[in-house]
Amino acid sequence: MRFVSIAKEIQRRRTFAIISHPDAGKTTLTEKLLLYGGAVQLAGSVTARKNQRATTSDWMELEKKRGISISSTVLQFDYDGYRINLLDTPGHKDFSEDTYRVLTAVDSVVMVIDSAKGIEPQTRKLFEVCRQRGVPIFTFMNKCDRPMKNPLELLDELERVLGIGAFPVNWPIGNGPDFQGVYDRQTKTMHTFERVVGGKYRAPVSVGGLHDPAVRGNLSEADFHKTLEELEMLEHAGESFDDAAVLAGKTTPVFFGSGVNNFGVQLLLDGFLKHSPAPKSRVMGGIEISPENPEFSGFIFKIQANMDPRHRDRIAFIRVCSGKFDRDMTVHHSRSEKKVRLSSSHKLFGNERETVDEAYPGDVIGLVGHDSFGIGDTLTTDPKILYKEIPRFTPEAFSYLHNPNTGKYKQFRQGLDQLLQEGVIQALYLRNSSIKTPLLAAVGPLQFEVVQFRLESEYGAESRLEAAPWSVVRWLPTNIKEDDLDALSLPTGARLAYDIGKNPVILFQNDWSANYFGETNKTFPLSALPVQTARE
Ligand SMILES: Nc1nc2c(ncn2[C@@H]2O[C@H](COP(=O)(O)OP(=O)(O)OP(=O)(O)O)[C@@H](O)[C@H]2O)c(=O)[nH]1
Ligand SMILES: [Mg+2]
User: Fold this and answer.
1) Exposed e or buried b per residue across 93-125, where buried means at least 16 C-beta atoms within 10 angstroms of its C-beta
2) Is residue 318 predicted with pLDDT exceeding 80?
3) Which range is most confident: 125-139, 174-188, 200-214?
4) For ligand 1, what atom is nearest to the CA of residue 20?
5) CA-to-CA distance for 449 and 283, rounded, in angstroms?
6) β-pairing, 364-368 with 108-114?
């Protein structure tokens, strides 16, 4: 009986991330999916004043100020019998560590493309990660209300640049100011859209046949015929929706539309839910863990503090992978190898939370009140299960962070420790150094800005950055002895340091210096990434 109901719950879970290059419209689309999914009544949007936004997923003060997403956001809601866990991710490459962690926690992705620009570099990188993980990809060709590339060219780009088959589920009629709507190739109906000012409400849609006079709208005879020819060509190709190819990540279903104008959002949502996968098994260390496995298991992929100014606490985000979660259950915590009781569990909707009593595979829930939890930790009722999903990144930017106000040292240190635990940034400690100033290491410089901003706004601590003279870090073997470290002959300007796990690293001034050292010192091979220990 219990088994049957778990299977049913798993089948109705859809856990997915929205990914793309910066500015393609992920947050806007997220907001519209919430509107069409019935989770918000009124969509917030990027208003006329570029830097003032009020979307559910960009809730951080700095996100509103900058008009970009800085941190990933979890939104859980019910729609049409499904329990949806949607994760909006930041597109900027400086925050890609967060985005990549989210990709470990989802079962499929919606890739947003700016139809005027086609496939941009960051989209390509994120796509590669999805392909390696075998994650099914759905494509939304956004901004069709602006002059866009020819749709056939966009499909060709998907196939040529990304090497994935593209199956257009619908097709745009008209382009830019002449955009009339989309033709749904499955049901052979035309969906004509009206522009809604501000896009706060659902756009009225009329559905008809392709040859209804209204469909042509203000399109010229020639343009309309061109579209008919394109559609005929697609039909001629004779491909039909191939679910197996989509689930294997070999083909991406393509939807056209415009998030900000609510064009094509309903079709995307319904098409996505129909064809996307429910949670499936994960293979870890040769063991296959199926979601139906009665033992509860999941892993922490994100930590964030101070989401709610009234609570000022820290949430660990866990993706449930198998079994059933019950509030107050006792689980094994991989890092401490201790048993912990999970009493404070929440479902999440942006920065809002609500106590949750049970959760099933696919769900992302927030756990509060466990300072020992870190990113990558496994929580399970079966200690044999250990997930090692979290990718590591090599920092490329280094800066000292000074505390200019000695009276506020406590706030400064407490804030910084918290941000380090969240993985917002990394810290390194110079070997044999009396300097107490923390040395921060980031994938990109925008991370420094986030640290400074959050220290000030969440902990009331000022800070000052000072550029450090290195640009490359390499890890030494973890078992290297102190004597061997002493004996290393480093190039000019290079320094020995330790990461937060006390693993030895070398900081180099540039790539050339790092490569030269690597070539001439074969005894202790360098690695661009820290060696992961079993319980890390
Ligand atoms: N013309 C037009 N503009 C759009 C559309 N969708 C989004 N935009 C605009 O594109 C800009 C970026 O939108 P966001 O939703 O913040 O983009 P994002 O992908 O979330 O950006 P990051 O999270 O910072 O990577 C905003 O100014 C939006 O109003 C669309 O369909 N048409
Ligand atoms: Mg965004």
Assistant:
1) bbbbbbbbbbbbbbbbbbbbbbbeebbbebbee
2) yes
3) 125-139
4) 19
5) 38
6) unpaired
Distance of alpha carbon 489 from alpha carbon 73, whole angstroms = 46
**Ligand 1 pocket, 25 CB below 6 A?**
yes
Cβ of 68 less than 6 Å from ligand 1: yes
Q: Candidates 23, 58, 265: which one to mutate for ligand 1, based on the most atoms within 8 Å of Cβ? A: 23
Confidence of residue 392 (pLDDT cuts 50, 70, 90): confident
Q: Report CA-CA distances (Å) from 4 to 1, 319, 414.
A: 5, 21, 47
Structure tokens at 188: 């052979």
Q: What is the pLDDT of residue 190?
A: 85
pLDDT band for position 89 (50/70/90)? very high
205 vs 74, higher pLDDT: 74
192: how many CB neighbours lie within 10 A of its CB? 21
User: How far, in Å, is the centroid of ligand 2 from the Cα of 447?
Assistant: 16
217 within 8 A of 225, measured Cβ to Cβ: no
- Top mutation candidate among 18, 21, 28, 69 for ligand 1, by most atoms within 8 Å of CB: 28
**Alpha-carbon radius of gyration of the chain:** 25
Question: Mean pLDDT score of the chain, rounded to an integer?
Answer: 90
Q: What is the distance in A from the centroid of ligand 1 to the CA of 67?
A: 9
| Ligand 1 near 143 CB (within 6 A) | yes
pLDDT digits (tens, 9 = 90+) for 346-369: 999 998 899 999 999 999 999 999
pLDDT of residue 3: 55
* SS3 sequence of 107-172: CEEEEEEECCCCCCHHHHHHHHHHHHHCCCEEEEEECCCCCCCCHHHHHHHHHHHHCCEEEECEEE
